[in-house]
Design brief:
It is a single chain. 67% of the residues lie in helices and 0% in strands. It has 100 residues and is an all-alpha fold.
Length: 100
């Protein structure tokens, strides 16, 4: 809050701003406490049972990543790739003045 705005505020507005700031700080502290707890749990699993350690953050925080779609990269047909390489090769040969 700016000092300029502070002097123009009423007592009720000041109290509301202070309460809002306290709520914001409380939410931040709760978030940090949850993060510390999760980290401690992961460290415990990593130290005691490494084979049970999650492979990705998506397994640890499923709610955070639920909107992301796990899409695998699509493989191109090898014939299409071969045709493109041959086409590019013939272009380079033509550019250099080589003939088959």
């Amino acid at each position: 809050m700016d000092a300029v705005f502070y002097w123009d505020m009423t007592y009720g507005e000041i109290v509301t701003a202070i309460e809002g700031n306290q709520n914001k700080m409380k939410l931040q502290m709760q978030f940090q406490a949850n993060l510390v707890y999760q980290l401690g749990a992961l460290v415990g699993v990593a130290f005691n049972e490494p084979n049970k350690y999650p492979q990705s953050a998506k397994e640890v925080f499923p709610k955070l990543f639920e909107d992301l779609i796990d899409s695998e990269p699509k493989q191109q047909n090898w014939q299409v790739m071969k045709a493109r390489i041959e086409e590019y090769n013939s272009y380079l040969k033509q550019k250099r003045g080589e003939t088959d």
